[in-house]
Amino acid sequence: MNHASPMPKSPRYDRPEISLIEERLEPYGIAVYVGGREGMSNLPLLREHNITTVVNCAVNLDINVVDAPDPAVEEGHLTYGHGAYRYYKLGLVDGAGNAETMMLAGYYQLLGALSQILPDRASYPRRERGNVLVNCRGGRSRSVALVALLLHKQMPDRYPTLQVALDHVRTRRELRPDEWFEAPKPMLVEATRKASAWIDRIDHRDPEQADREPR
């Protein structure tokens, strides 16, 4: 049972900084959260919820996660070194402009982040395998679309269609019903449908499954 304190509200978007979407993602046995820029930057909150991996979906949002700068950084160079958590970046546009394969790439990048085993060497200090946060700027479009795709493909018994998965993520993220038409953006929803069909072909599932889903 999760005894963590209630998640604080974001003053700008009037929703939690992070939202618990799935308590136990199979087969990994970890929790999946969705959030925005406030959540990804709230390190005490992330640690409170045992979030050790962050996947940033936004191309227009960067963050300095380095908490152990490399001593070799020279003057005038940007800081680099080990981060406060394991950090992956997809870099989607929140709307039109993405290559049509980027959502597919994001799905496999997210699976890779969940299953990656790091070497037991000093240069890989963040080997903890805790929960994951998927974020974008507001946590209402790009991250919602990618997590819905993840739930549908990884847990089809619970989320048999993309629509079921999308509605679940929207609800758990506390998106208002009057913003569902643009959260996620329609072209990102369509990108998840294309990605879902491609995943079926890659995994040798029924290639017509996506065409039979209710829209």
From TrEMBL:
SUPFAM superfamilies: (Phosphotyrosine protein) phosphatases II
Start and end residues of each Tyrosine specific protein phosphatases domain: 108-173
Gene3D superfamilies in the cross-refs: Protein tyrosine phosphatase superfamily
Matches recorded under InterPro entries: Prot-tyrosine_phosphatase-like, Tyr_Pase_dom
Origin: domain of life: Bacteria
Signal peptide extent: none
Protein name (database record): Dual specificity phosphatase, catalytic domain
Lineage: Bacteria, Pseudomonadati, Pseudomonadota, Alphaproteobacteria, Hyphomicrobiales
